[in-house]
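Hi P.,

Sorry for the delay on this. The queue was packed all week, but I finally got your sequence through. Input first:
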Amino acid sequence: MANTVIQLKWSEVTSTPTSLNVAEPAYSNTSGKLFIGQAGNQVIAVGGKYYTDIVDAATNLNTVSTLVKRDGSGNFSAGTITAALSGNATSATQLQTARFFNVTGDVDPIAVSFNGTANADFTLELTNTGVTAGTYGGATQIPTFAVDVDGRITSAANVAISTSLSIAGDTGTDTVALNGGTLTFEGGDGITSTVTNDKASFAVDNTVIRTTGGTISGDLAITGNLVISGNTVTQDVETMKVEDSLIQLAANNAADAVDIGFFGQYNSAGTKYTSFFRDATDGNFKLLTAGTEIPSAANSVNVAAFTRATLDANITGGSVSGLSSDIAVADGGTGAGSFTAGGIIMGNGTGALSVLANTGTAGTYGGVDRTLTVTTDAYGRVSAVTNSAIAISAAAVTSGTLPIARGGTNQTSFTAGQMIVFDGTSQASRANVTQTVTGGLSAANTISSITFDAITGGVTAYTGSAIAIGASQITSGTLTTARGGTGLSSFTSQGVFYASSTSAIAQATSATEGHILTINASGVPTFSHLSGGTF
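Then the structure:
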């Protein structure tokens, strides 16, 4: 079976074929696996480089995720073997070498020998920390202890309790005896002290105003002027009444550097802001909404973070300019921002006014020898013009004789059967001249020469020859298949011809040994090695 080539279905991009016919093989260069098809288009892996690489990597070393192979002595290395083992180990009832169990730390050291033939018992005793055994603390003493990292007391002592307490106020100091003295909490103007259940508390009346971090409950009436010199005034109220009819803002805006107005907060798919203000950058008043950021501490509004708001109002003065969109027809506008110069403006119901397109009929029409056909559109404009030469039916000519200068014969009658000849003035009948021509032409012949009468133009003689075209007479072009040719001007040695379409011939060639003529995925014959196809 020399030079026999067997090809499998294959793929360079797919790891596993989705289906195979029964016993149909396939190989993936991506996964390195050989597959075979089973009943029901099932696909199973039966071999390939993927598995041979696993076998070739087998070793007697302790290597993860690798097949085990015994060495020349039949042994192999391993870490942990998880299995049910059976059999006896050497010296199973006694350790080959006895070992000591040693205990150290905060206990007296212990060393017990163990060889597996008997139990090992330990008696532990804590080491002495040096603390004197006894009772610590009392009515006039406080015990103090030191504890190490293991929680053991390493020292203990008694400390006498102080019998007095030193106290101090904004002014003055004193000492109170802890063994029978009394500490008095005294209030002052607007402040009342109370001692109940071992707790001292202080309360203030409505004559006291707190100045730091406090809250005033109830009503507060100020008869004089209220001057606030801080940076921020926060009013958490439901209703605010102001008698002033004009509220001054930006009193310190000496350089016209800040925006002037007000803003509010609302919720629509999250916190949003709306604002009406005078923009310091251009001096224009702006009504904005759907803001995504609060105006900054520098008293400015980021216009880019807002959208224009809708104003429902009657505007009776001023001028309109710089609109972002055209005024609709329903609002009294044209609905358009520009018109073509010289164009005719056309209404469109409630839609924007539009310019009628030029019909392209400009020009000069008509004349003494022309007639016009005019077409108008729905607006009464000329949309098309046909400029035609005047044509008069022969039936319309009822008098006179048409001269030669006007395409006539200048004659009113002719002799039947005679030839018409121009005599220099008009066309007239001329007597027939009998001419005799002998011979004949077959279907395969052509006329090679003809002799005409000098006056009448009649044929007086002719000769004919058989049609014959030599191959040497075809000197240009390529004979197509429709004329019995191949449509090709040259051929490749050893090429094979095939029909590339219903009207063309192509050829397939190859110089590679083992190639056979196959059909590719597009149905075109081509030389290649036998292939099982791709998946």
